[in-house]
């Protein structure tokens, strides 16, 4: 099954593009097969170049909360294209989307638009350092914030210490100001802050971790981060690139009622186009150039087509507040079905679900952090993935990614998906 044009294209692509893909997870390496080359997608469906159609639960890794090719978004983008693709000068759109973001997340008093989540987190950290005059940052093991050098780290050999590069090509000197704490472990944060607190510019966290599978914050964990950062004058950055406009219109910060100093956004706010943002308190953001001394720029930042797609996506979400409860219900149904399957088959399985994000870990210990997440049997996941794909269901080709449910998955499609899960 599926051999044909995808396989041929993969052979050709590998000659010109490292691994044949422009982002590693697309290579399907951890599920032991060749990737499907995609031709088109519409609503909840995605179609490959061989004409196979799948119900899609990857949703482009998060942007697709309205599914693919939402008519209102496509119409607006087509019209915007007629007016030119980029001007390198301010546009009304940039103000409009900044205003929509600010309204959704009042903690983002001022906002700068950029073109990727990587750029947003990198710039937010530079700004936090510029504002505080401090060099250290704390990140959490297993949280992902894009691929900038200082964030591409793993914990050093002593459990809690400065980080070491998690990629070749990253000089050790670039990671010496990154400290690594353990997600959902207050003591690990306290220990680092006791020692380095006065020198820590920022703590950056995924308020719901969704890049080591899905791991929600423990009760009180985000509140604790808010308190301890306040105590030391450290900037609290919520990386809401996945959770923003997904867990609620106001993101994780609205859902958990915790107000960060700075926030990074991406994925949904671009409506499928390359756009991201960082923002926060006025006095912090006024450190950014041209007002302040923190340099940051972008030729295509706030691009008119990307902002159009983003604005229309947010408009649809805003005018349909019921979508959030609906997608949550669909995700809950899938999560419960996976649990039921595990029970029927006496399998060890943990299903973490929050809002429209879910993830099944093949392990018998509750998954609350990185170490428990990696106890998952990834070979079991690969089997599950391949079974689902052969039944016409496209889920993430990696254990450590979320399953994304969109507003346009119909009840019939959810039921079909659940039946396929149970029949395995
Ligand atoms: C996807 C993601 C990023 C990186 O965004 P890119 O647009 O891929 O650079 C950063 N942080 C989180 C939490 C993400 O999920």
Structure description:
The protein is built from 14 helices and 16 strands. With 424 residues, it is an alpha/beta fold. Helix 2 packs antiparallel against helix 10. The protein starts with a helix and ends with a helix. The relative contact order is 0.16. Pyridoxal-5'-phosphate (PLP) binds next to helix 4. Pyridoxal-5'-phosphate binds next to helix 4.
Q: What does the average pLDDT come to?
A: 96
β-strand number: 16
> Largest sheet, described in full?
7 strands, mixed
Q: What is the C-alpha radius of gyration, as a whole number of Å?
A: 21 Å
> What are the distinct ligands in this entry?
pyridoxal-5'-phosphate
Q: Structural class of the secondary elements?
A: alpha/beta
Please state the overall shape, judged from the principal axes of the Cα atoms.
Answer: globular
Q: Give the helix level as a range of percent.
A: 25-40%
SSE order, one letter for each helix or strand: HEEEHHEHEEEHEHEHEHEEHHHEEHHEEH
Q: Runs with pLDDT <50, length 5+?
A: none
Strand order of the largest sheet: 4-12-11-10-9-5-8
Secondary structure blueprint with pairings:
Blueprint lengths: L4 H12 L21 E5 L2 E4 L4 E4 L14 H12 L9 H13 L5 E5 L2 H16 L3 E5 L12 E2 L9 E2 L6 H4 L2 E4 L4 H11 L3 E6 L15 H12 L2 E5 L11 H6 L5 E4 L10 E5 L1 H4 L18 H16 L2 H23 L5 E5 L2 E5 L8 H4 L4 H13 L2 E2 L8 E2 L6 H13 L1
Parallel strand pairs: 3-15, 5-8, 5-9, 9-10, 10-11
Antiparallel strand pairs: 1-2, 2-3, 4-12, 6-7, 11-12, 13-14, 14-16
Helix pairs in contact: 2-10, 3-10, 6-7, 11-14
